[in-house]
Amino acid sequence: MSKRKRVTSQDIADLCGVSRTTVSLVLNDVPNVRISEETRRRVLEAARRLNYHPDAVARKLVSGRSHTIAVVLRQHPHQVSEDAFLPEVLRGVGAVAQRHHYHILYQPLDPTDPTTYGDLVRENHADGIILSGPRADDKELVKAHQDGVPIVLLGQIPGIDIPFVDVDNVKAAKMAVDHLLALGHRRMAMITNASLNYTASRARLMGYQQALEAAGLPYDEELVRHGDFTAASGAKAMAELLQLSPLPTAIFVASDVVACGALQEIKRHGLRVPEDIALVSFDDIPLARYLDPPLTTVRLPAHEEGRQAAGMLIALIEGKKLHEPCVLMETELIVRESCGSSAMRRNEKRLRT
Question: Global pTM?
Answer without folding.
Answer: 0.80
